[in-house]
Write a structure and sequence with these properties.
The chain folds into three domains: 145 residues, P-loop containing nucleotide triphosphate hydrolases (Rossmann fold), CATH 3.40.50; 38 residues, no CATH class; 92 residues. Helices cover 50% and strands 12% of the residues. The strands form three sheets. The protein has a five-stranded parallel sheet. Strands 3-4 form a two-stranded antiparallel sheet. A two-stranded antiparallel ribbon has the order 6-7. Strand 6 and strand 7 form a beta hairpin. Helix 10 crosses helix 12 and helix 11 crosses helix 14. The longest helix is centred in the last third of the chain and has 26 residues. The N and C termini lie far apart (54 Å).
């Protein structure tokens, strides 16, 4: 097994590490990420959907050459889906074989069916059982989609990096995983969980930063088109939309326009491709009703003044 890449030794090294893997960061994010790695504390990332929170965990796993284990949260997530469950068909088969052959007493059978060979490891347990010297990056994605009961369950894991399985006992991580928790803030997360983490709000990027992201992620996009796309999206975020487009949508839109061989925006193209940028019909209808033409005219006038 190869040795994972070393952790960064400074904030500047953290910035360089992110940049080397095409993640455009600022010093505030690099600082809290560096501290989370050095202090071995979970990093709690909050922000609107599509601003790049999940990507941080992916980049970190790639940069440090560690496995990425992702727990995608959803309503109704429970221990059997997140931590472990028993392989019931295999257990039943072992019980029937023991009964058929008459081998083993009740206590022996019980030990056998609740042994690790019948244990199905889910993401939490996989993260805690990472091999020494190669602890994984553990992404708990969109925690706000779960309920408070599951939050409470996570407290033991985030405090002591351990989990208790009644039939086997307490399993403690040999080396704490690098934990990244994301939330889109559809509901508030309890303070007890936040206290165990370092915190950072991931905001929408400035126009200059977003333009740099588009150029990195969509290198085939024409320079003028990239400028218009970013300026248009920045103005959309100033409107009272049901869901403002995130950076992910900006990249999707720039990619779609590049696939259509567009060199610049025009009203028809904007109208035809709004489905890659906005995800709610009310928002799309509002832009198509005339607001899109006005925004595009403002964008082109402002960009012309900058030349």
């Amino acid at each position: 097994m190869s040795i994972p890449n070393p952790l960064p030794n400074s904030i500047d090294e953290t910035l360089a590490m992110l940049s080397a893997h095409d993640y455009v960061s600022n010093r505030a994010l690099a600082t809290v990420l560096f501290l989370a790695l050095r202090m071995k504390r979970p990093l709690f990332l909050e922000g609107e959907a599509g601003v790049g929170k999940t990507e941080i965990a992916k980049v970190l796993a790639k940069a440090l050459d560690r496995p990425l284990i992702r727990l995608q949260c959803y309503e109704g997530l429970d221990v059997s889906s997140a931590v472990y469950e028993w392989n019931y068909p295999a257990q039943m088969l072992e019980i029937r074989l023991a009964e058929a052959t008459g081998e083993g007493d009740r206590s022996t059978i019980e030990r056998n069916i609740f042994s690790e060979k019948h244990l199905i490891r889910r993401p939490v347990l996989q993260a805690l059982e990472g091999s020494g010297g190669r602890a994984p990056v553990f992404l708990i994605d969109e925690l706000d989609r779960t309920d408070e009961a599951f939050e409470a369950f996570l407290l033991e894991i985030l405090s002591d990096y351990q989990v208790t399985i009644p039939e086997l006992g307490t399993i403690v991580a040999k080396e704490p995983p690098i934990v990244i928790i994301t939330t889109n803030r559809t509901r508030e997360i309890h303070d007890a969980l936040k206290r165990r983490c370092l915190y950072h709000w991931v905001d929408y990027p400035s126009a200059d930063v977003e333009l740099e992201i588009v150029r990195l992620k969509v290198p085939g996009c024409e320079q003028e088109l990239s400028r218009q796309v970013v300026a248009f999206v920045q103005k959309l975020r100033q409107m009272d939309l049901f869901k403002s487009p995130g950076v992910a949508e900006t990249i999707d839109w720039a990619t779609a326009l590049t696939e259509l061989d567009r060199l610049a925006l025009d009203p028809e193209t904007v109208s035809d491709t709004l489905g890659t940028l906005l995800k709610y019909q009310d928002d799309i209808a509002r832009i198509e009703s005339g607001a899109g033409r006005e925004l595009l005219a403002e964008v082109k006038a402002e960009l012309a003044q900058q030349l």
